[in-house]
Amino acid sequence: MYMRPWRSALVVKMLGGSTSYTVLSGRLNFLWAKSGGIHITNIRNGYYLVRFTSGFDFERALTGGPWMIGDRYLMVHVWDKHFDPDSKEISSTLVWARLLELPIHFFHKEAVMRIGKRIGKPVRVDKATEEGARGEYARICVQVDLTKPLLSNSALMGRNILYNMRAWTESA
């Protein structure tokens, strides 16, 4: 019951610096409040909690990056009850992974999401992958654990599948 208002909330933090609440609020309202409203709370240690009234806006904010405020990247995470703003360590992030040299019969959402589990926690595939509009590579957004080594490839049916990951350096 107490956690209900936080189910559609993101924790955000600027990497390599900070900005004022006013600047951040203005920019995030411009970028994210397309279908509904957002409420931003400054919690501490450079972290902000952003609550959404629209599920569409929440999903877009979570997976539509990269997000930048000025020349700094904005880390975006789904809020969970174990979040501790006093912890200095950022232990996970969202990345877009390109799955290269993938056999053509794996170019559908379910297969790509399953392969994405080898990299981290799958969030979504991009539109071109979902629609089967591109055969050179598939793209998937995954949450990766930064305390573990990132995979660069794995075997799939005897074939080596390469992962080319970019941490919020390309847009969906």
UniProtKB/TrEMBL annotation:
InterPro entries on file: At4g02000-like (IPR040256), DUF4283 (IPR025558)
A Pfam family: DUF4283
Signal sequence segment: none
Domain DUF4283: 6-86
PANTHER family: DUF4283 DOMAIN-CONTAINING PROTEIN, GLYCINE-RICH CELL WALL STRUCTURAL PROTEIN 1.8-LIKE
Protein name: DUF4283 domain-containing protein
Organism: Linum tenue
